[in-house]
């Protein structure tokens, strides 16, 4: 049973014991990310995440930090998104205190040494090169840039090369002090742990500085017509993402949006997989996803195809969007999508790290509906075919439509004619 305790400094402590597992996950999530940055320090959230692994007073080097968990077979990592940053360690439950101590030590006692900052600049620049040279991954960033423009939501989380090269030690100290404060921190213990592990985690959590909640810049949606964004790059395959602005994760129809994405491009029997791959042979991989932020979200379909097939692929996807507006989803197809989502959730949430992420993410983002997996599935099962059609009619309209492409020799004029409902 999940338990939540709010400490005096505002830190939220979640404890989620799990029967039948030997693993333990310690996860710290902070409500800060690239959306909390300004243009001048774009990328600092992600860079700061890297710097927490570069040495503390107790463990002065990266090797000392990694060795502490490697020698017990633990997994550990961190991640930065646009609205939150996370740090975790997953270990055998008997080593829970080690996981808690290492992550807490990193977040409390990192040195942010200037020489390590200079060294890490090269690492992050190569990380950027890696992503931009993988169009299947980079297309997600290009699509969000198309959706949100030159705003904190539209900028790459990794930041600009100019910023990465210019950051100095004081920048990290200032940003850390302004963003990593009690009310923005969620600490989660999930899996196999003891009461003493909770007590130690609480001790570490209690020394986090107090402070008001971080403020993210609001997104003002001014789009009034379809938008096309092309990143010119010579590649063997054209990668594209075509979708629409939609609902935030706090919107009443967000779960319906998730279910619609499953129907359109979830499993191998979904509409777009069958139509684009199996019937027309236009692509090897195609996938539809729904994602949300605090005040806006989107649904999009990503695909890799040949230059000769780009226009037909885009037209086929938009035609499926139109179809779900006009014709009610059949009873069997709707139930199949619900069963698929149910099954995937059960498989995912068998592990302590997935359970920790499920609850901590909702908490750190202040979800209005903080759902257990059981409640989530109950709400999914209540969604009707009419609900699906209603939101399809709301979101699949010209003013929401966006298309991002990575490739060369793109038929821009032809795509602009296709890009409409």
Short descriptors:
Cytochrome Bc1 Complex, Chain A, domain 1, five-stranded mixed beta sheet, 421 residues, six-stranded mixed beta sheet, alpha+beta
In short:
With 421 residues, this protein is of the alpha+beta class.
Report on the structure:
- By secondary structure, this protein is of the alpha+beta class.
- The chain has two domains: 3-206, Metalloenzyme, LuxS/M16 peptidase-like (Cytochrome Bc1 Complex, Chain A, domain 1), CATH 3.30.830.10; 227-418, Metalloenzyme, LuxS/M16 peptidase-like (Cytochrome Bc1 Complex, Chain A, domain 1), CATH 3.30.830.10.
- It has 16 helices and eleven strands.
- Strand 9 and strand 10 form a beta hairpin.
- The mean pLDDT is 96.
């Amino acid at each position: 049973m999940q338990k939540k305790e709010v400490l005096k400094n505002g830190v939220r402590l979640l404890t989620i014991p799990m029967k039948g597992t030997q693993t333990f996950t310690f996860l710290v999530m902070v409500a800060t990310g690239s959306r909390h940055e300004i243009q001048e320090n774009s990328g600092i959230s992600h860079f700061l995440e890297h710097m927490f692994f570069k040495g503390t007073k107790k463990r002065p080097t990266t090797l000392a930090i990694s060795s502490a968990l490697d020698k017990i077979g633990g997994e550990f990592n961190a991640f930065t998104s646009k609205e939150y940053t996370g740090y975790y360690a997953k270990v055998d439950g008997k080593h829970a205190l080690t996981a808690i101590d290492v992550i807490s030590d990193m977040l409390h006692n990192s040195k942010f040494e200037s020489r390590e900052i200079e060294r890490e600049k090269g690492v992050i620049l190569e990380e950027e090169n890696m992503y931009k040279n993988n169009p299947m991954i980079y297309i997600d960033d290009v699509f969000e840039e198309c959706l949100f423009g030159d705003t904190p939501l539209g900028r790459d989380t990794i930041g600009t090369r100019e910023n990465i090269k210019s950051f100095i030690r004081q920048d990290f100290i200032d940003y850390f002090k302004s963003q990593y404060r009690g009310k923005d921190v969620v600490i989660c213990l999930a899996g196999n742990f003891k009461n003493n592990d909770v007590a130690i985690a609480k001790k570490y959590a209690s020394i986090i500085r107090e402070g008001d909640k971080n403020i993210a810049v609001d997104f003002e949606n001014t789009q009034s017509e379809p938008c096309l964004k092309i990143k010119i790059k010579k590649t063997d395959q054209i990668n594209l993402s075509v979708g629409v602005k939609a609902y935030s994760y706090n919107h009443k129809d967000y779960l319906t949006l998730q279910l619609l994405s499953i129907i359109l491009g979830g499993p191998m029997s979904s509409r777009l997989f069958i139509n684009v791959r199996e019937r027309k042979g236009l692509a090897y991989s195609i996938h539809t996803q729904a994602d949300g932020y605090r005040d806006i979200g989107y649904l999009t379909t990503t695909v890799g195809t040949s230059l000769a097939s780009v226009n037909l692929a885009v037209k086929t996807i938009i035609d499926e969007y139109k179809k779900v507006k006009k014709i009610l989803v059949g009873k069997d197809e709707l139930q199949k999508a619900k069963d698929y989502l149910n099954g995937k959730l059960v498989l995912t949430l068998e592990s302590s790290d997935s359970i920790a992420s499920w609850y901590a993410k909702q908490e750190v983002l202040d979800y209005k509906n903080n759902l257990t997996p059981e409640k989530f599935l109950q709400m999914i099962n209540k969604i009707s075919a009419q609900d699906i059609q209603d939101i399809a009619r709301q979101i699949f309209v010209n003013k929401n439509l966006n298309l991002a492409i990575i490739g060369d020799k793109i038929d821009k004029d032809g795509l602009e004619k296709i890009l409409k409902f």
